[in-house]
Amino acid sequence: GRFDPAGRPTIVATAKHFIGDGGTEHGVDQGETIASVSDLLRIHGAGYVSAIQAGVQTVMAPFSSWTYTGADDTGRRLSFDSAKTTGNKYLLTDVLKTRWGFDGFVVTDWDAIGQVTWVDAQGHAKACIATSCPSAIDAGVDMVMVPFGWKDFIANTIASAQAGEIPMARIDDAVTRILRVKMRAGLFRVVDGASVATRPSQRAGAKDAAAATPRALARQAVRESLVLLKNDSATLPLARRGRVLVVGRAADSLPDLAGGWSLTCQGTNTTNADFPVGDTILAAVRDAVGDADVTWSSDAKDVDVTAYRVVIAVIGETPYAEGAGDIRASGTLEHARRHPEDLAVLERVAGHGVPVVTVLLSGRPLWVDREIDRSDAFVAAWLPGTEGKGIADVLFRHADGGTTDFRGRLSYSWPRSACQTAVNQGDADDHPLFALGYGLTYATPHAALGRLDESPQPERCGAPVAAATDDLVIFRQVENPKFPLFIGSPAGWSVRLGDDPNAVVTTSDGFAKAETTQVNVQQDARKVTLSGDSHFAASSDKPQDLSGFQATQAAVVVDLVVDQAPTGPVDMRVYCGFPCTGRVDVTQALRALPLHRKATLRIPLQCFVDHGADLSAVEAPFAIGTKDAFTASFANIRWEVGGAKAAEALPCPPPTPRS
Predict the structure, then answer these.
(1) What angle is formed at CA 320 by the lines to CA 314 and CA 324, rounded to 5 degrees?
(2) C-alpha torsion angle, residues 245, 250, 255, 258 (rounded to 10)
């Protein structure tokens, strides 16, 4: 936020993820944004310009990539082919810092530098690792988020600076920016010649829950963010009298109000008890009307709707963050496809002559035509946080008969169909159901919305994928360039093996090691030694739609030689974007193989699908991991069409328990 001129510390805010992270193809996390430079800056950069003007002090770079070839508005020629923005000097330095005047610091996302690639002065393709990425720092990154192996990162960065890979002027600039932000935040202060500690933990109000919880401000933010999409027959505002039926599983859920990145990464595995301060929407309605006149039913079964004056349905998405929340090409924007229970609740309460007010909790616009049609009033509440009373403030009249009107307007276009993406203002095909900036109010008269189009929607938004006829070769002497080989451990999950057959690659903690060996022919295999929490994988930073293999009775097949039988559980995996993973326990299958002799492991692909893999967005078609000791040589890794029909194909075992 903007800093107080008197020098009092305020909040250091971060704008993220710069830039285009919300515009990746099919909305895939860590995906690829394909946009002209003008669209990238105009559409995806607008929020950053205003954030910088408001005083934002840090900007986080994304995992995502940008693809564009052409000229910018100055005539400068650009060519980026799925280039990671974390290593993009044009965006981080030339645009963000120079053109837009951002004088705070740029920070990377969690362990993101390990995905950056670049071309050196000799034209050779190079790849960063989790503990070294001089090209990202040279591109404009000032602070690097290194969750593991930070000591190695410091040593490597010093060595890179000493070798001239990172100019000292760039180091000086990064340090200056970091210190500038800390000074602005009041972290460095001198009073009467003495240093005064201004750590947040030592400030007035620290450790005082009441002082740290500005509930009135949070409640105001809820009121002002609500968007009224429908209000036929002036259903809203509601009087504070009469019997009210509240339905929907989300009505009494603080986790659903908070969404992802709330206490836990995905916002899951939490309960109301984990939020000691706050009110659910159900609690807010009870406070507004009185406990005696409010009934709640999660599913609306066996309820006489006609016994109530109004129904308030609270529906929406369950908590998610990136990865788990992605709507992939195999899915659509249709809410009922993921949460049919919400539509079922509305089916039970609609059509009884009792007005239905629906509050939708969601992190994005969704196709909800059927839900809207079964509602007399419909409110997009987004993910408002724990102050549910802010919603009741607007839905109900005040005790004196006055009202708090809706102020929210759509900051995104609302889709007319389940596959209407992307929808940007000014596009030739920009015909959304509700346009950018839409939002009804009590004060302004409006016509009834009318019945919407409930035509059946497609089952997937991505183009149909033809059934695969050829095997997918993942590794056969040389890497498939789409899926290079990696080893990983907590010291760095993506350590590239590379194409040097003489290289011995080891993670910095020694938990994983890989070297070239032979299984079928000379130098056709990688001998992998795992110990501790580690894995070996063929992985891409760009999800691949391999759903054409699903109906082919394919199998994941690998030729291997076991040199040390596993001492603990080992699972084979297909990754589809964190936390999407299909895991199959192969411990017993590996232990059953003779040591030091060639064997073939063949596991039906359907096993991975049954245990969570989404084949429309595969990032790693093969990975094997353990937390114990295991050594084997792997060759000829492939997805084999029809391989599941082979007599030696393994039956699908139960999934490995997740720790």
Answers:
(1) 135
(2) -90
pLDDT digits (tens, 9 = 90+) for 131-169: 899 999 999 999 999 988 889 999 999 999 999 999 999
Q: Minimal CA–CA distance to 502: which of 519, 486, 517, 520?
A: 517
Handedness of CA 515, 516, 518, 519 (dihedral sign): positive
Q: Which of 109, 138, 334, 376 is catalytic?
A: 109
Active site residue 322: yes
Q: Which CATH architecture has domain 226-395?
A: 3-Layer(aba) Sandwich (3.40)
Just give the CATH number of 472-645. 2.60.120.430
Q: According to DSSP H, which parts of 290-352 are helical?
A: 335-338, 340-349
Domain boundaries, the chain: 14-184, 226-395, 472-645
Residue written as token pair 């709640």: 296
Which are the contacts of 8, defined by CB distance < 8 A and separation ≥ 6?
A: 186
Q: Which of 322, 342, 376, 541 is catalytic?
A: 322
Q: Token digits for 460? A: 């997937």
- Contacts of residue 447, defined as CB under 8 A and 6 or more positions apart, other chains included, come to none
With b meaning 16 or more CB within 10 Å and e meaning fewer, what string describes 173-182? bbeebbeebe
For every residue of 555-596, DSSP letters joined together read: EEEEEEEEEE--SS-EEEEEE-STT-EEEEE-HHHHHTSPBT
Rounded to whole angstroms, the Cα distance separating 72 from 68 reads 10
Taking the C-alpha atoms of residue 526 and residue 485, their distance in angstroms, rounded to an integer, is 9
Q: Which two tokens stand for residue 615?
A: 């084949």
pLDDT in tens, 569-610: 999 999 998 788 999 999 999 999 999 999 999 999 999 999
- Name the maximum alpha-carbon separation found in the chain: 86
Contacts of residue 462, defined as CB under 8 A and 6 or more positions apart, other chains included, come to: 26, 328, 329, 330, 545, 616
Domain 14-184, second-level architecture? Alpha-Beta Barrel (3.20)
Degrees to nearest 5, angle at CA 310 with 307 and 314? 115
List of E strands, 204-342:
227-231, 244-247, 294-297, 310-316
Contact 533, 511 (CB under 8 A): yes
φ/ψ (deg, to 5) at 408: -70, 145
- Residue 15 pairs in a beta bridge with 59
The yes-or-no answer on residue 334 being catalytic is no
Measured distance CA(40)–CA(84) in Å, rounded? 14
Give this prediction's pTM: 0.79
User: Cβ distance 421 to 414 under 8 Å?
Assistant: no
How buried is 76 (Cβ within 10 angstroms: 0-12 exposed, 13-18 middle, 19+ buried)?
exposed
Within 10 angstroms of residue 51's Cβ, the number of other Cβ atoms is 20
Phi and psi at residue 42, to the nearest 5°: -75, -45
- Cα-Cα-Cα-Cα torsion 471, 477, 479, 484, nearest 10 degrees, comes to 110
pLDDT at 3: 54
